[in-house]
Amino acid sequence: MFQYILRRTLLMFPTLLGVTIIVFAIINLAPGSPVERKIQEMQFGGAGSQSVESSSSNTGISQEVIDALNKQYGFDKPIHVRYWIWLKNLATLDFGESFTYEEPVTNVIMSKFPVSLQFGLISLFLSYLICIPLGVLKAIFNGSKFDYISSFIIMAMYSIPGFMLGILLIVFFAGGQFLDWFPAGELYSDDYDYYSFVGKVQDRIWHFVLPCISYMIGQFTVLTMLQKNSLLEEIKKDYIRTARAKGLSEKVVYLKHALRNALIPIVTGIGSFLSVFFAGSLLIETIFNLDGMGLLGYQSILERDYNVIMGLTFIQSILMLLGNLISDMAYVLVDPRIDFK
Questions:
Q1: With the CA atoms of 70, 72, 76 and 80 taken in that order, what torsion angle do they form, in degrees rounded to the nearest 10?
Q2: What CA–CA distance (Å, rounded) separates 289 from 35?
Q3: What does DSSP assign to residue 98?
Q4: Start-end ranges of CATH 1.10.3720.10 in the chain?
Q5: Residues 167-207: tens digit of each pLDDT
Q6: How far does Cα 135 stand from its chain's mean position?
Q7: What's the topology of domain 112-334?
Q8: Most confident by average pLDDT, 40-49, 97-106, 185-194
Q9: Nearest-angstrom CA–CA distance, 72 and 96
Q10: Is the separation of the CB atoms in 61 and 55 below 8 Å?
Q11: What kind and span of H or E run contains 119?
């Protein structure tokens, strides 16, 4: 197992190198650049889209100013030199400065981090807390009225995109046209600072309900049905027949013997607890007015904020690779018969 972990760890370095090279090349070769965005702001207030050369000839900006901007943003060097500089700075976790926010990329990402962290962790925890017991119950009562009704409900929920569900929740439960039970968005109320500690906790929970439902909806259905089908497949095996033949109760057969092996497909998502730190949905965050990672990534692409894009890409890639490794290790914990060599 140790050798396997070591090999996987060593393979992360060329994988990360390949990912960053591809992303760096794509964003630098794509039309538009921070220099052009700056020129547009200077001349047109951000409207329009044209190249640096046409800006120089048609908007009255001198070539000296453009050259100064290129030097300021580091675009006076070839693309491979810029990538090498970025790679060297990465050794000290220096992602450079954001062209949009004009502050270190690390500070920009960390300012958005708490929003995605809260919703990511809560959604992951609630999904597993609810889906595993629900999937077990559906397997135990397979074919019953409970199974059919619950399947219909969760499949209907799965067919609704998260952002569309968010809109419907706001319309029906956040003062849209019907009930006014929950706030429509943001993380807390305007007078949050004046609440007691208990009041602050209650206010946060109240603001989290609708966005969390929208975040969880897709994963919730998949995990529930995966748990149910995995357990149904497990109880057909010979060792379960043997356990029943010994006179064991159905509760012991399901929960002690079958459930552990049925959890093996579920642990594939355990490693995602790292990537949820940077999870984010652009549409859901926009609907509920949440300033998280999804919105940051989208705005960075629009603004051609290369350093922020590269910072997000690197961090999300390394978390995904570490998450996959943790999922493999979870396999071994659930089923000791699995041995990675």
A1: -120
A2: 30
A3: -
A4: 112-334
A5: 888 888 887 677 778 887 777 787 877 888 888 888 888 88
A6: 24
A7: MetI-like fold (1.10.3720)
A8: 97-106
A9: 12
A10: yes
A11: helix 105-140
